[in-house]
Amino acid sequence: MKSAIKVNFSVEDLLKGKVDSLVGKMIQSFLYVGDKCVSEGRNNGSYIDRTGNLRASIGYVVLYNGKVQGKSKIAPKSQKLLEELTPKYNKGVVLVVVAGMNYAASVEAKNYNVLTSAELLAERLVPRMLKKVGFTE
Description:
Elements: H1 11-44, H2 53-56, E1 58-64, E2 67-71, H3 76-85, E3 93-99, H4 104-109, H5 116-132
Antiparallel strand pairs: 1-2, 1-3
Helix pairs in contact: 1-5
């Protein structure tokens, strides 16, 4: 006697669940990297920040298809900058790290570290994190 096995799920549902799980892990990884980048930028800037404004303006946001998934505590100027940048990143999972003060780029141009070390840290951490959650071999 033969019996049939009824499958109670679709391949599409199974794949969507797997993709959703991986995207969730990727978002969590980017939140971790964002926190590390903010810490790096605030703690290891090589400039003298007399007012504290530049260090306080360092922040990040993680987006998924243009929607905010998480962000650091952000100074108002950084919030404004992130709101301006967000529409540019409307596909995929994206980590945006900013220094919101309008003079941050000129400080970097004078060979001071504002976000350079944070960027280098992200370049090292992201591939490791993605490998850890199963995106790369």
